Amino acid sequence: MPKEFIVAIELGSSKMTGIAGQKNLDGSITVLATVEEDSSSCIRKGVIYNINQTCLCLTNIIKKLKAILKQDIRQVYVGVGGRSIRSIKNVIVKDLPEHTIITQEMINELMDINRNMTYPDQEILDAITQEYKIDSQHQLDPVGIQCSHLEGIFLNILWRKTFYNNINTCFENAHISIAEMYLAPLALADHILTDSEKRAGCMLVDLGADTTTVSVYSKGILRHLSVIPLGGNNITKDITSLQIEEQDAEKMKLKYGKAYTENSNIDPTLNYPIDKDRVVESKKFIEIVEARVEEIVENVWFQVPAEYADKLLGGIILTGGGSNMPEIGRAFKMHTHIDKIRIAKFINQTVNSKDPRYTNHDGTMNTVLGLLAKGNMNCAGDEINTDLFNQDGHTTVNDVHKTPRNPNDTVGTGVVLTAAEKQKAEEEFGDVMFSLINAARLYKINPDNALERTNQKFINRFNYLEAHTIKEGKNLHDMTLEEMDAIWNEAKKLEREVDKERS
Question: What is the Rg, in whole angstroms, of the alpha carbon atoms belonging to the chain?
């Protein structure tokens, strides 16, 4: 077995998939091993709800991969997704003195302000810069341009904190080191969509078992991301309303299910056999399946922001297991009125494998292949020693990133900082605080008093600002930053005058 390979894990709702592969010089990927674990008992709609069971699945995945590869696994790439993922547009405004030339520091300040936004019970997983507004003009790179009004327009991708913490807890408890955590929809898009589709404007729809993920691109930039809690399993459950067991309903969906059927092609006398003793009316079956498909498509289309609905020149790209349903492209054309539909059965790279899961090109392995393609660090550990009397062949799993990365270094890449990286960042900040306290001792300064004075100073300034706006009959929310800065400076001036009188 090769000494170098990449390992990626996809946390799916119906199955958890682990894959090991090599990148070749010609850009192709060679799959070395693929293993799966049933995750239906611990992951629902892309969200972990049973930590212990998920840990067991992860442990089994790694154990099986090691057995095939005959190598230890030092680290893995992980894709995160789930129903709680959503994007929200955020605008940071900064008024500047007339004829100010924008610097990179000003841009970094806007990015930092955006990154520090807080949302109730939600975590910013990634922040993507959309563009900047310079006075009345939109720019992708405003550095060096003269203006008096600067706006940073960002797309923040959010996820519930509890779900994020659960993922980190699972990998920590399973003693599996994370090389990189990626937003799965972005990793998928990078290896499914073409650059021209992203530039022209397109919508990528990943039709999964429990969820449907919608990604909207325009001018090469992600403009919207959302996850709909509807998928192929909903169709199966609807079919069970015909007094059919779920297992049989799934078989019938795969055998007879179509996303769209012309009325003229529906035979009211035709029956579909359930088993040797039972049948179901084809007309009833078709109505049930198509009603749910229509609901899914309409929910997908509803996710497209109004300003991009007529700008999808690159069309709609369908992928995932649900894209295999016959006439699914026709259903999207009928309900969205977008004629350009492409079904992406496979990623853009050449994949070398004899495994039918890849050679069938049915879209079900696209996300995990996208994660594998994103990886660029060797995941191989030491060769596993089969000598029962010598256990030196196993390596200890440690955190990969010894120093925390700057969040701004990963902005817009789909990279999610791990819990370990966040912890290291907190530890380093703690070191800075400790140094400051020691410096205070050296200069015989009471740090508590110093902090209290600063707090009081800012409280006084905020009180002055609030009192001044009430007196003038103004609302803080309606004021520009320039107006607030002017009152703030008045408060600082009064402080200096009071200090002078005291001295």
Answer: 28
